[in-house]
Amino acid sequence: MPSETELLSRFAALARVIGNTPMLAIDFFFRGRLRAVYAKCEHLNLTGSIKDRMALHILRTAYVSGRLTPGDKIVEVTSGNTGISFAAIGTALGHPVTIFMPDWMSTERKQLIQSYGARVVSVSREEGGFIGAIRKTEEMASDESNVFLPRQFSNCANVEAHELTRGREIWLQLGNSDLVPGAFVAGVGTGGTVMGVGRFLRTARKDIRIHPVEPAESPTLSTGCKIGHHRIQGISDEFIPPILDLCQLDSVISISDGDSIVMAKTLAREIGLGVGISSGCNFSAATQIQNDLGGDAIVVTVFPDDNKKYLTTDLLRDEPVRDGFLSPQIKLTAIRVLPRVCQMCDALPTALRSYLS
């Protein structure tokens, strides 16, 4: 079990390899006109996904409040990336980690979680899928006294993590290049990204549009319940998360999973960005919103994870191009990197020290 000094040192080290990700301007032709969409490269965080920010902040907040203490078990439900983040960060802080995950997620996700020493418990559709997995974690917490549940779908610290870090980074990185965002779009898993980033950007600019994105094949947000199946792992997880407030957001954007796969392939093959399927989805959604606002509109999105978590999925298989896809109309030409902001997590050890001392 780490000492106070060791714990503070570990938190400080983690804070320096999570966040402050690059912001790319991606130049492309769409229907014959040159445009640019801006994307935060969240696939360049510690474990290769957007969830590292949330996992670190939730654990930090839990330590400060006293809900998490050294040696406690961390137990969470995930579609993959969150489990990988808690497995890595929890292990780095000296915690045993157990992850409950639906059994239809990619093999890579399960193996990556296990590679960090965490235990994976697979939950089938017959056992209740996501809802069943959440129930199992609650039962485990009631049976054992030293279990901490991050509860990513309902924990307000999830939203706060994205508001305090990525939202501020987006505003500063664009501002350093004299750019003002007109819209932000992001796929919804827990809702933490779109709610947190949206909250910060709306504080800075009240009329900015904030659009949640969902798979066209499974319009959970639009219908209020689970309908159909889709192939964009990490979003539309069978229910509307408690931390997501659609009344605070603009219209829901639907993107086909096939279009998302083709777009992710295009990002890798044309400009060397090896990102996951949800990144392709977000880029297509950003292009759609930019088309609505006008080609010169500054539209920002995120690339949530890398392509290494999809090697056994349809991302690496031939995908037929269908009528209505946006991706075939997009010709990527170049990427430009906006200046990063200074590291903004240096206060983390101070907050922890006030609790631990």
Tell me what the structure shows.
With 357 residues, this protein is an alpha/beta fold. 39% of the residues lie in helices and 18% in strands. The protein has eleven helices and eleven strands. Strands 9-8-7-10-2-1-11 form a seven-stranded mixed β-sheet. Helix 9 packs across helix 10. The protein is globular, with a radius of gyration of 20 Å. The two termini are 16 Å apart. The model is unreliable at 343-357 (pLDDT under 50).
Query: How far do the termini sit from each other?
Result: 16 Å
- Compressed to H and E, one letter per element, the order equals HEEHEHEHEHEHEHEHEHHEEH
Globally, the shape reads globular
Name the poorly predicted regions. Answer: 343-357
CATH topology of the largest domain: Rossmann fold
User: Which strand order spans the largest sheet, edge to edge or round the barrel?
Assistant: 9-8-7-10-2-1-11
DSSP, total strands: 11
How many domains in all? 2
Strand content is 15-25%
Helix content: 25-40%
CATH architectural label of the largest domain: 3-Layer(aba) Sandwich
Rounded to an integer in angstroms, the radius of gyration calculated over CA atoms is 20 Å
CATH class of the largest domain: Alpha Beta
